[in-house]
Amino acid sequence: MKIAIDGMGGDHAPKSIVEGVLLALEDFPNIEIQLYGKQQELQPYLKQHERLQVIHCEEVVEGDDDPARAVRRKKDSSMAKILEAVTEKRADACLSAGNTGALMAGGLFKVGRIEGVARPALATTLPTIDGQGFLMLDLGANADAKPENILQYAIMGYVYAKKVRGIDNPRVGLLNIGTEDKKGNDLTKQAFTLLKESNIHFIGNVEARDLLNNVADVVVTDGFTGNMVLKSIEGTAGAMMTMLKEAFMSSGKTKISALLMKNELKNLKGKLDYSEYGGAALFGLQAPVIKAHGSSDARAIYSAIRQASIMVEHHVTEVIKETIAESQK
């Protein structure tokens, strides 16, 4: 399989991107990588590899560029080129850690939606206390949503959890302000009814405070709410690690305790580390489009490449197409 990667996107590009690519090439013998970017900036970090093709691009989509305008006008940018490669079927999937809005706009207008999908959703796997993780969508592709959109998010998330994460009958929960069936606003009440009537394993409403306790395998909500929950989880996890570090470094006695608990603290950090879960996938497009975290290091890029390869290997896009078509009969 071939994966097209934006070598210029993200806070630590191109160094972390190239390092992540080289790690992935070593561990995944079934992939070929097309790396797009400015040759002169990529070159210092590159190593020759028979399954790596570097394609020079003159332009870069910057983080503060207007999303729609950037993809439309910067046609020779690394981001535009990876989307073009997927659209023209020269690559099976693409990945970028760059401008989220531009990647979503480009994915929508260049790669295109699956027939029957009204709105693609941004989805990622988030950590849980037991290490299993859960898939959450939408995380910001659409600030507003209709009940039928949330039903489609649930169907796509269910397919992904089953095919990629290997969960036999994934539990799907609707994010709400209470677990009672009648809770919520008009959107969640109507979405609840649609989900309950569907063929997926819907377990009802779930609350934000229970998300990290593995209350569901898939959690669905509108993009506005999902994005705030995602950033709250990321911010809280980061703050907790900072407070723990400060506490353990506050005196000689606590420093000794930290040394004795080194492995346990490392495991805790690993459970809360986004880099182990890959990127966020745009579900509902004609091919896998993966958005890696803007601050991704080499390990996070490696995990995002692994995620893209698994989606291609398990034909996730094709299964979503079939499932959506079946649900509309």
TrEMBL record:
Keywords: Acyltransferase, Cytoplasm, Lipid biosynthesis, Lipid metabolism, Phospholipid biosynthesis, Phospholipid metabolism, Transferase
Gene Ontology MF term list: phosphate:acyl-[acyl carrier protein] acyltransferase activity
Example GO biological process: fatty acid biosynthetic process
Database matches in Gene3D superfamilies: Isopropylmalate Dehydrogenase
InterPro entries: FA_synthesis, Phospholipid_synth_PlsX-like
The keyword Lipid biosynthesis belongs to this UniProt entry's keyword annotation: yes
Family: Belongs to the PlsX family.
Protein name from the UniProt record: Phosphate acyltransferase
Gene that encodes it: plsX
